[in-house]
Amino acid sequence: MTPPPSRADCQGWDARDPLARIRDKFRLKPGVIYLDGNSLGALTHNSAACTRAMIEDEWGHDLVRSWNVHGWFDLPHRLGAKIAPLIGAAADEVLVADSTSVNLFKLASAAAMTRGTRHRIVTESGNFPTDIYVLQGLAALLGGAIEVVAAPRSELLSRIDESTFLVVLTHIHYKTAELLDLQAITSHAHAQGARILWDLSHSVGALAVDLGAARADFAVGCTYKYLNGGPGSPAFLYVRRDLQDTICPGLAAWMGHVAPFEFADDYEPAPGMARYRSGTPSLIAFAALEGALGIWDDIDLRDVRRKSEALSELFIARVEAVSGSGLALASPREPARRGSHVALTHARGYELMQALIARGVIGDFRAPDVVRFSFTPLYLRFVDVWEAVTILGEVLAALDCSELVRRSGVT
Amino acid sequence: MTPPPSRADCQGWDARDPLARIRDKFRLKPGVIYLDGNSLGALTHNSAACTRAMIEDEWGHDLVRSWNVHGWFDLPHRLGAKIAPLIGAAADEVLVADSTSVNLFKLASAAAMTRGTRHRIVTESGNFPTDIYVLQGLAALLGGAIEVVAAPRSELLSRIDESTFLVVLTHIHYKTAELLDLQAITSHAHAQGARILWDLSHSVGALAVDLGAARADFAVGCTYKYLNGGPGSPAFLYVRRDLQDTICPGLAAWMGHVAPFEFADDYEPAPGMARYRSGTPSLIAFAALEGALGIWDDIDLRDVRRKSEALSELFIARVEAVSGSGLALASPREPARRGSHVALTHARGYELMQALIARGVIGDFRAPDVVRFSFTPLYLRFVDVWEAVTILGEVLAALDCSELVRRSGVT
Asked: What CATH number does residue A347 fall under?
């Protein structure tokens, strides 16, 4: 058995880290170890600068003419093209628009309109709620003409059958970080004659996804986690090229029209991804995202994934050494089956996280007893993870102590 | 007949203008007369400062904790409450979220699900396209169970009948600026047993709207025109309080859940306006809007409307004096029947607008022959309008000249 890593080991890894140079692109708060990048990614200098330029040089200076002068109209496509290589898609298969929820609605409604005689959507129980709610809302709107089945993970594959027109799954689970096999499940869905939509919110920017190799039909995802686009930054959607012109979102709006500036009375969808646009998007939100996406140009996702696994492994190994802590791993133990965060359970998880935050270690709590720690390779160092677990150990000791005091009845 | 106003008259009006003090709150470009505030409002210093604070002090500094520390979660309601007094609504009847198109879809789908035996939505042909497209998309999604009738203005009232469950109209026409009688049409729709949804995109911030007095059911609107929220800033929606809990949007998502942080598998809508939320909104876009809305605290909408009419009247009176110009008024001549912009037609409208823009007078062109000029009382002076028409006259003279040259065959 190898000895547990030391702080010096961590410093050595940091010194040899090919991504170490990226950390300087972020504006990080001294004294904080930020392990919640899977909820809200950190601010890049680039994002701040792009937003300032959008507001002062574009909106403030060129006003409405910016739509032409600064190419505002095509920004959803340009940003989509920047995300495409991160998810194994072609530049003309990805669009940035609206929120993940709204994009999911667009695609699920489009699939529902072309469902033929099938009437079921299969998703996973315990999926991130919005994915289920959007489908349930669609089913309610269609007056029960379609049905949403939320099956536990163990029954997922068997529930996809000849009645299923769409499968909606999240690639990396928001709570446990467990990875689904995107390629195998896509093939299975296709073999059953169903289309599949992947939610990549916890995947994009955390590891390489290959929608193209899997021939996945649809995907949506969020840009404010590992892509660092800013709080509530616009989401993306992907439609495989050969499907793009064969379906139409139930949410049709003017920017998706074939000729929006002809102001015609009848909706005629644009070809390609443009038909998946809806109303006028926030250009300021786009600017923050554009800045954040800029840093990906010279990043190799294999480096990202390698470091993500190493950071998570370091964390788990050190946590396991904090014996008798009452902590249990809620994520898969094998790195290959995990995304870029680690979930632990603890009976006093909420208190634990509050105490960690007070000590500058920022993770988050998910009811009833899960604490999540995210490992973002672009701005975290190995020493940060080392320190975080040291603090976690101290916080746990203090919690144990307060528990003893509580039980003893001393106030 | 009164003599036409002089430049000195304009200077006098500016000196006595109760809104003159507001102009300093905007960052305006010297040498530009901006008459396109009905397309994209101008930048306020406040908007730039709020966005910077959101990015650097909130996101950059407090990261994910900002959701609690800075009250991000309630921002859609707080911003809605700021818009409410501008449209005659109560603070808890307005929510800021998504785009106008998406909000229209939420409300039209909610109305469709509670339509009873009625099956028609009546709207106006020539309405702003997205309003029609959203309804057409909904009808397509519902497989023809509902029908969208787009009737010309002259037939609107007669088309609202016992088959109509929803009427969707824009209060101020995007092209002609013609005002509909919100109160009378709402009463007429109600008398026919139909609900009504008003698009207030060209109204809010331009004149006082009283949804409450009219007992209008629903409204949506845009915040990047007269509210100056920034390019593509989030839209708002209004639902009369007694209706809020009786309907549910077809687009259901996690922020509209009664307990979003319980992460339950089944959608249960929140009470009140919260159920009309969808996914996570851009906080950066919200910040720009929050800054822009801040300036309305001490503005009286009666002053705004009075000045809007005066500016438009000045413009029209001077344009009428540019005789033989080939310009025709495409907006109603009576100020009470007009919103805050003026549409003119000209056979060479596109060229005309390009030439105006080159001279620093920014309006816009709408195919085939309409040029629009918007009069935004918060940052326009009477002298600006005076100068704009002077330049318009010069540009027209040059166009006529080039036309003569063209006809004479001289190259």
From this structure: 3.90.1150.10
